[in-house]
Amino acid sequence: MVAVFPQKHLTDIAEWHRMGEAGIFPPESRLELIEGEILTMAPIGFNHAGHINRLNHILNRLLGDQAVVSVQNPIQLGDLSEPEPDFLLLKPNADFYTTRHPNAVDVLLLIEVSDSTLRFDREQKRRLYATHQIPEYWIVNLIDNCLEIYRQPENGDYREQTTLAKADTVNLVALPAIQVRVADIL
Predict the structure, then answer these.
(1) Closest CA to 35 of 80, 66, 3
(2) pLDDT, tens digit, for every residue of 3-35?
(3) Distance between CA atoms of residues 121 and 88, nearest Å
(4) Between the CA of residue 40 and those of 2, 56, 59, what are the distances in Å?
(5) What is the pTM of this model?
(6) Ranges in the chain, pLDDT < 50
(7) Do residues 114 and 142 touch, judged by C-beta distance below 8 A?
(8) What CA–CA distance (Å, rounded) separates 62 from 88?
(9) What are phi and psi for residue 133, nearest 5 degrees?
(10) pLDDT at position 160, please?
């Protein structure tokens, strides 16, 4: 007799969308498809939500029409991942991405606000975003009260990794004229 071992069933984006359309998961579910696995994400606490509101206010004020600010919306990364990062700065699009979810080539900057998910955001999500060539990834680290910046994706990771404190400022790679004071987002 040949031994048979259970195998993991990975879900692709087409199946993921069919599950959503069929109403398999309750509407209040906080789920993301990451590398073929359906993951339950942590609930959003008041500190996390407040920092998202702050970022939204600052980025919309600074950017105007230079980018689409997308808050907690899906991004399609290949056939097996559709995370919902806290923030995406996207290339301007005439229909504001109403006919499709954005993908990696549309992203100018991706931001995760992180407290209880810091390790996951630093490890698994960092590698996912680098693998898909997201040019710039920020983690608003609420645990250590700093901003982690990841740039220059190469071979599944970022070559440049910087940590900034409240006194620092940062310019966006894709929009170098835009300068953000770290104190404004922490």
Answers:
(1) 80
(2) 777 777 788 889 998 988 898 888 888 888 899
(3) 15
(4) 35, 24, 28
(5) 0.91
(6) none
(7) yes
(8) 14
(9) 65, 35
(10) 97
Please name the residue ranges forming H helices in the chain.
13-21, 46-63, 118-120, 126-131, 182-185
Q: Residue 104: what pLDDT? A: 96
What does the angle CA 175 – CA 177 – CA 181 come to, to the nearest 5 degrees? 100
For residue 162, the model assigns a pLDDT of 97
Residues 85, 72: Cα–Cα separation, whole Å: 5
Rounded-to-integer distance, Cα 166 and Cα 183, Å:
4
The answer to whether residues 94 and 81 touch, using CB atoms and an 8 Å cutoff, is no
Instruction: Please state, in angstroms and rounded to a whole number, the distance separating the CA atoms of residues 73 and 124.
Output: 19
Element (H, E) at 34: strand 31-34
DSSP string, 72-88: S---BBTTTBB---SEE
Six-digit token pair at 76? 């399609």
107-114 and 136-141 strand pairing: parallel
The predicted pLDDT at position 28 comes to 82
Kindly state the tokens that stand for 182. Answer: 């770290």
| Joined tokens for residue 112 | 């995760």
